[in-house]
């Protein structure tokens, strides 16, 4: 169905009883041109771009649970393109531009809100680093403004400006950054992809790969039977190592848990997205009023979708250092998602050494903002068998070649990225 | 998650740092480029029981070898990493 002012009015006037399903809950066919493993934002976006941009419509998205039940359904919803290194800068800006036209492209309200992202700085060295990053962004045609203390005070008067240890000195602002509604992104891609003929198959867990005599992948074994495929793309977030293991691959990835938090709803107070540069804390306020915030990963390998107390304490300390006013706000809920932490903190989008198997992995904890860009470049790779020009640096062999994209300069330490 | 240090007893997680897979063995001098790549970058990343190195920086500062289930966070054994000598100290 196509949403319009008339379809909304018609549904409203008939008591909201005649809404149609927004995507088809398909049963698997015997064979597809492309099978995507993983019905999160990236997998669904890939399917939609395959159908809409590259004309490949005989596509299935296989999801172990229900679509959007993993990290896509539980994240801190931030979108931005304030990256400094070649490879990242162009890619995230591509993604940002796709966010800006997503609702028109998908005919779905994904609540993209360009409320601005401010990274605060607390020392001269950090100011210089942010100035450099801002300049890099502007050279590449991306908006960035370096704010001084007076500008930050005007924009966010509620911050603690008398913190003796980590005084706020200013911030780097990207006005085009902001938030989007994570569930709506999943539903929007499902809605638009399904309308173009993509099969979205839920409760379908991949348990193995079928290969021909030459080792080429010819399909997948699933909990709903064997499904043949010309090509198979993996977009399974924190489970990349486990799925790749079924094809005999070891990846430069560790799985770690990241916790995030939502407070009870309060009146509108935080106008934008704020990150606390002295620690690791970031916060925005949802349209329902809850404060949505997070910080570091727990820092050790984990597939348990829950976190531990020390990081929770650390995140709340970061919040209190920045905004003492939230001290009496109650925490409503907390969750832990599993992340692919790659060895340089950047994603991997490439063919694998196994013929017919393609990899979209290693998003660390920044995968949400990449959703549309990731879908476009992965669809390009699947359709054309060569990398999209904005994803040329995300190759799997970059670790062997010494061509890391290490935005934080931490080296091969996944728990520090 | 709490860890029972063989020297200090049961302590909270915040006292410890995670230092990765205990199974990886540092390649000897003269190892091939592939062996070094394998050691530095590739990971088994097991869903299940793994053996890992932890450092008790907030306590006795000993290196520990811990068996832990990455699906449940359940810890099945904690040993001093240094081997027999350290085990004697533990008694």
Describe this entry's structure for a reader:
The complex is a heterodimer of chains A (417) and B (91). Chain A is an alpha/beta fold and 417 residues long. Helices cover 28% and strands 26% of the residues of chain A. Chain A is built from 11 helices and 18 strands. In chain A, the strands form 3 sheets. In chain A, strands 1, 2, 8, 9, 10, 11, 17 and 18 form an 8-stranded mixed beta sheet that branches. An 8-stranded mixed beta sheet of chain A has the order 5-6-4-13-14-15-12-16. In chain A, strands 3-7 form a two-stranded antiparallel ribbon. In chain A, strand 9 and strand 10 (217-222) form a beta hairpin. In chain A, helix 2 packs parallel to helix 7 (182-195), helix 2 packs across helix 10 and helix 3 (88-100) crosses helix 10. Chain A is globular. The relative contact order of chain A is 0.18. The mean pLDDT of chain A is 96. The two termini of chain B are 24 Å apart. In chain B, strand 4 (49-55) and strand 5 form a beta hairpin. Helix content of chain B is 18%, strand content 36%. With 91 residues, chain B is of the alpha+beta class. Chain B has a 4-stranded antiparallel beta sheet with strand order 3-4-5-6. Chain B is built from 2 helices and 6 strands, in the order E-E-E-H-E-E-E-H. The longest helix of chain B is centred in the middle third of the chain and has 9 residues, at 33-41. The interface between A and B is medium-sized, with 24 and 23 residues.
């Amino acid at each position: 169905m196509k949403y319009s002012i008339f379809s909304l009015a018609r549904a409203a006037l008939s008591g909201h009883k005649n809404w149609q399903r927004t995507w088809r809950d398909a049963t698997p066919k015997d064979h597809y041109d492309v099978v995507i493993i993983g019905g999160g934002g990236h997998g669904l976006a890939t399917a939609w771009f395959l159908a809409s941009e590259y004309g490949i419509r005989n596509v299935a998205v296989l999801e172990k649970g229900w679509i959007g039940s993993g990290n896509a359904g539980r994240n801190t919803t931030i979108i931005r393109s304030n990256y400094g290194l070649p490879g990242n800068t162009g890619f995230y800006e591509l993604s940002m531009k796709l966010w800006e036209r997503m609702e028109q492209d998908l005919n779905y309200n994904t609540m993209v809100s360009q409320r601005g992202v401010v990274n605060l700085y607390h020392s001269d060295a950090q100011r210089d680093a942010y100035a450099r990053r801002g300049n890099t962004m502007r050279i590449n045609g991306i908006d960035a403004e370096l704010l001084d203390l007076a500008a930050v005070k005007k924009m966010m008067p509620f911050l603690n400006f008398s913190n003796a240890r980590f005084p706020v000195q200013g911030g780097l602002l990207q006005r085009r950054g902001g938030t989007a509604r994570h569930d709506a992104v999943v539903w929007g891609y499902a809605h638009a992809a399904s309308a173009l003929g993509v099969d979205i198959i839920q409760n379908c867990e991949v348990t193995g790969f079928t290969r021909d005599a030459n080792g080429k992948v010819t399909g997948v074994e699933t909990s709903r039977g064997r499904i043949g495929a010309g090509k198979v793309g993996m977009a399974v977030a924190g489970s990349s190592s486990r799925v790749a293991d079924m094809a005999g691959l070891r990846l430069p990835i560790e799985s770690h848990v990241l916790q995030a938090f939502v407070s009870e709803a309060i009146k509108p107070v935080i106008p934008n997205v704020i990150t606390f540069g002295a620690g690791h804390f970031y916060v925005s306020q949802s349209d329902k009023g809850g404060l949505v915030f997070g910080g570091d990963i727990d820092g050790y390998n984990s597939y348990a979708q829950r976190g531990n107390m020390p990081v929770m304490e650390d995140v709340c300390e970061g919040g209190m250092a920045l905004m003492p006013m939230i001290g009496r706000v109650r925490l409503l809920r907390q969750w832990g998602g599993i992340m692919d932490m790659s060895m340089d903190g950047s994603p991997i989008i490439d063919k694998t050494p196994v013929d017919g198997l393609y990899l979209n992995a290693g998003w660390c904890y920044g995968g949400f903002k990449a959703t549309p860009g990731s879908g476009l470049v992965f669809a390009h790779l699947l359709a054309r068998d060569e990398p999209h020009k904005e994803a040329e640096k995300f190759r799997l062999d970059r670790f062997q070649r010494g061509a890391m994209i290490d935005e934080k300069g931490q080296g091969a330490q996944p728990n520090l990225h | 998650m709490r860890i029972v240090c063989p020297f200090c007893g049961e302590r909270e997680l915040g006292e410890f740092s995670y230092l990765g897979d205990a199974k990886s063995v540092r390649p000897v001098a003269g190892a091939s480029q592939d062996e070094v790549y394998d050691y530095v970058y590739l990971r088994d990343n097991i869903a299940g029981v793994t053996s890992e190195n932890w450092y008790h920086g907030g306590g006795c500062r000993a290196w520990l070898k811990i068996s832990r289930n990455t699906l449940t966070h359940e810890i099945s054994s904690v040993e001093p990493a240094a081997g027999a000598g350290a085990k004697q100290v533990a008694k």
